[in-house]
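Lecture 7 notes: from sequence to structure.

We start with a single chain of 126 residues. Read the sequence below before looking at the structure.
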Amino acid sequence: MKKIILIEDDPDLLDILKELLNQEGFEVITYPDKNSVKRIIINRPDLVLLDNQLTDGLGSRLCREIKSNDLTKDIPVLLISGDENLASLARESGADGFLAKPFNIAVLVRMVKKWSGLSHDMPNPD
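Now the structure, written as tokens:
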């Protein structure tokens, strides 16, 4: 079973995404705030889904930490946010991909499967 760390400060969205991804066969570990790279090292996920606008900081900063650490740099990170400049934030932080809020659930599932190694299909952002 592929393991995903989901970091989202909206409790309703966190619960919905966890349930959805569980139904798709993923083990989902959730955090409502910007957590340390240490938690990611301990859990060794196949993918990190990371909201950018967190109550205690920016997900893009955590993404930079993840990508600059030798133990976590190869773990794919997808930034999820409503930020207008999400594409450039993702690029600058080293994220492997991004998804703008509000997003299509089917696109999210395809991206998660692709980046976690379950599918080799490229997601269609439509």
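The chain has one domain: 3-116. Keep this in mind for problem set 3.
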